[in-house]
Specification:
Helicase, Ruva Protein, domain 3, two-stranded antiparallel ribbon, alpha/beta, 2 domains, 4-stranded parallel beta sheet, globular
Length: 196
Amino acid sequence: MHGIIENLINQLTRLPGIGRKSAQRLAFFILSMPESEAMSIADAIRTVKQTARFCNTCFNITDSELCEVCSDDSRDRSRIVVVEEPSNILVIERSGAFRCLYHVLLGALSPIDGVTPEKLKIKELADRVAAGGIQEVVVATNPNTKGEITAQYIKEVLAPLGVKVTRIAYGLPMGSDIEFADEVTLSKALAGRREL
């Protein structure tokens, strides 16, 4: 019995953000669950691994040729929000701020790590823009060095296509105090100021 629990704990520690203590708690929680609930979790993992694929257009996760966003005719098809990973789409969708299209790069440029433009979906983005109908590309890469390099590269690639390329604003989170903000965040907040 000890060996099978230890194996489950070891497998759970492979998940991001799950240390040994969390894995132990989860393992014993799974053990105490009704079998049907535990099997539902196992089935959901098996199903996602067997059927999940990338959307042919935007590279979001889907189980068909086009994802739900790309097949939704009610969306603003003149704008594309560019993100690094499919999980970024979920966050933007929850905000309710945009009802447009997306394009997932599947990473960010990092020459030191061997992540070059050819390894990302940048050419596919340029092809979508070149096909026509896109008026604005909103670059929503992460606010770090890799994200900034990627944003600049996208701007350069799309420049000859005559499309408006914008970058998401950075700033202070709602409910925070200015005195606790770091210098970079504060300078970005000041640079991205807007008229009241």
